[in-house]
Amino acid sequence: MRYTVSAAAAVMALGAATLAFAQPSGYTGPSNASKAAAQGSYSGPNNVPLMTVKQLVDTGRDDQAARLQGRIVSFEGDERYTFEDATGRITVEIDNEEFPAGQTVSAEQRVELTGEFDKGLRKTEFEVDHLTLLP
């Protein structure tokens, strides 16, 4: 019995390691790296300000809530993607469960990302709490 538990743990660890390098099933665009659950979401009014990448990078404060509209243009690995709008690009962190269940997101699909700006001394990125497909 003890051997069975250890073997199962090893298989689970191997599976987790494999997922860390595979492109997520919810995104089908380009990937620069060698990784969706069904989930409900709120769809009512949103008071989080809509900003451009340039506005966010130039004037955003650390931990500021914001919304961005544009395209996810590439997968960089470890839940990190490059997001682009008409004003520039920013690295975004998107957990796999934020992708719409049963749908894929291509590099041509317009999306709205709601989340929090992470502005540090060495890196600037946007941590996504919610992803919405736009028409």
Instruction: Tally the beta strands.
Output: 6
- Spatial order of strands in the largest sheet: 2-3-4-6-5
- Major beta-sheet overview: 5 strands, mixed, barrel
Portion of residues in beta strands equals 25-35%
Query: Any low-confidence stretches, pLDDT <50, length ≥5?
Result: 1-21, 34-38
CATH topology: OB fold (Dihydrolipoamide Acetyltransferase, E2P)
Distance between the termini: 53 Å
Give the overall form.
globular
Mean pLDDT: 81
CATH class, anyone?
Mainly Beta
Separate helix tally? 2
**CATH homologous superfamily - what is it?**
Bacterial OB-fold
Summarize, please.
The protein is built from two helices and six strands. By secondary structure, it is of the alpha/beta class.
Task: Describe the protein in words.
With about 140 residues, the chain is of the alpha/beta class. The protein has a single domain, classed as OB fold (Dihydrolipoamide Acetyltransferase, E2P), CATH 2.40.50.200. Helices cover about 20% and strands about 35% of the residues. A 5-stranded mixed barrel has the order 2-3-4-6-5. The longest helix is centred in the N-terminal third of the chain and has 20 residues. The N and C termini lie far apart (about 55 Å). The N terminus is likely disordered.
